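User: Show me an example of a complex going from sequences to structure tokens.

Assistant: Sure. Here are the input components:
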Amino acid sequence: MKINRRNFLKKASLGAAGSPFLLNSHGNVEEKETGITYSQLDEILSRPVLKKELFSTPVMIEQVSLLRYGDSILCKVVSRDGAEGICVSNDLYMTSLYPIFVKRVQPFFIGKDAVQLEEIMRDVYLHNYKLQGLALWLPVATVELAMLGKIADKSMGELIGDIHQPSIPLYLANNNRGRSAEESIARIQEHVGEWPFKALKFKVAGRMHEGEFPTGRSERLIPLVRETFGDEMTLYTDANGGYSGVEAIEIGKLMEEYNYGYFEEPVPFDWYEETKQVADTLEIPVAGGEQEPSLHNFRWLIKNNALQVVQPDQFYFGGMIPSVKVARMADAAGIQCTPHMSGPGLGYLYMMHFVSILPNAALFHEFKGFNQRFEMECPTSSLTIDENGAIKVPTGPGLGVIIDPDFIEMHEIVKA
Amino acid sequence: MKINRRNFLKKASLGAAGSPFLLNSHGNVEEKETGITYSQLDEILSRPVLKKELFSTPVMIEQVSLLRYGDSILCKVVSRDGAEGICVSNDLYMTSLYPIFVKRVQPFFIGKDAVQLEEIMRDVYLHNYKLQGLALWLPVATVELAMLGKIADKSMGELIGDIHQPSIPLYLANNNRGRSAEESIARIQEHVGEWPFKALKFKVAGRMHEGEFPTGRSERLIPLVRETFGDEMTLYTDANGGYSGVEAIEIGKLMEEYNYGYFEEPVPFDWYEETKQVADTLEIPVAGGEQEPSLHNFRWLIKNNALQVVQPDQFYFGGMIPSVKVARMADAAGIQCTPHMSGPGLGYLYMMHFVSILPNAALFHEFKGFNQRFEMECPTSSLTIDENGAIKVPTGPGLGVIIDPDFIEMHEIVKA
């Protein structure tokens, strides 16, 4: 699908009568809109995501446990009928967030009907809204992803949508920073290795205005990556909020010159009006949303075309269901969706099931490596990257993999 | 000081050329601005808060401990010279957030110079920005408030500002909901009791769109509270984000009719453009900011006069230093500041020290009751409410109170 950000242009002067939501340092810009209205988006938000019609009877949740072995954290959900769902959580954060799970999220699910998942999640939010952010959403995602596990005889994607992509084209996300452009190229090449990727993302700027080191690295790297990997490679950059609006516009023009695919988080994630101004000024699509904690702000970002590619993270944003709501709004506005992928371990599998149901999927999706931490079987996919740089989505129930039971067994119940 | 929201009016049509940041359901409104520019606000944000000139030598931090006894959580900071600072944290949340403190905040402070507090806090943020929100800020506040404790021979207020209010006029915050207007009046009267308060805040709407129970309670309560407490009582309401923009405007007009002082959180805290539209449409000042996690969004809310009273919470927003930055921006824009008070235990004392330094303090400040949980001495204030409904700010070092050492002793070090 094509991004239609050019379809609805209008002129707005930034003088005395200008929008209060635009940078005052940047002269006149064209304000670009999507043409979608808030009423249309609200109607989309009101539609359920979980397909309740797949369940003829309630699925009563008897047990929700958070389990830990070293830094590995799992959530296990067991229904009264003995169906089990497992989520391999995002350890990097869950080792700091487990009491939020145990004290503030878990109690809402025990003894409830899993078919009412969306209603339960709404209730969790109402009782915890002051904690809105990754710290609340990641524990919520952990139980949601477990509930969408093998609790029904459907794949995770089929529980929440229709399959549009049985196979997911990947881009390799490289995290290299702090070295010269030339050294960075060597490391990116090494990372790509023999994999047949057709797309690649690398880091520019210094994270969150930390300042770039070495100075001028990004300006040199942008042409150099294009020259190194050729015109056929789709290239993305990620600034992690490293630029001001004015700086982002300048470097974004260099990306346009070298035909880059999108520019992720040009300014800090909570700089809403600057994000929109960068997007309004540049031709290259602006991507973002990894750290957006609010569905209402996603609604604003989409309605106002402040992002042309939205990137909800299934862990950071509270699971599949809220991510699908973002993707649906984006689809209606002609905006693409691709997840930010977090969660070492099985993060790539959650990403794949989410992308599988997107009608407005971006061309390529984030890949940071395979699970190396435990054994698992997958009867329906080899879980390897094919010659097109894509990977087949498992079709079995839930996540579609069987995790080594001995590995699960080593975990103990977490208390807080 | 007077709120100058009427000084800078302009007309903006909400048709095709309107601001992307306004509700589309509400016809034409006057967009009210403060006249302050982003450059002026950025200059204010760049000024340090902690008065480094009070320290002739570094104050090296030897120990930072999180301590717990039951649900009581304290932070103790000890310098190499043996100076000790204690923070009585917000137990309600810290019992869920302690691993964030122990694993992600505490390590940044040990072995550092307390005089570089702001630089350390910036570093904590850079390494944890994905957790932005109460879940990060409350642990940061806990160590910041301990560091501003008896680590120097100055009161907490004197370390970060000039004393403008030696005594703090209070309003009683009543949390009653879910009962008829008549029953609510009886409970509010009981709560006020014999205290000589000159101001009162009560709850309207259902929290965060939960729906109001019983229906119509707020419409009846608003006139009834005015009739019951008379024209001399300053009255505030708090909707906790319970209304849509259109509903908030309607009920706000009723508050105007009965001469209410301000209307807190008319719409959910993350509904930025609706907050501005409610403020633009109503005459009654709109208050908010309790749950705002982003300094950059406070900058937007202030510049654009979306709030006429800003209410940073010293715990929820990461301590005194970020709260002072919000208050300074507000002051420059002619906007009042009053803290949201959280933290049962000593929350009211942190509130008082913060208010003591505000040149743009609101008329009255939030009070929810005295500490009943442990013994303490205060040599410089009786910590009682005087005949004007005000309370004297302690002037001793740090918080100005001496907490019962036996109580502190009962606490044990928290690990995560």
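The lines above are the inputs; the final block is the predicted structure for all two components together. Chain A touches chain B through 54 residues (CB under 8 Å).
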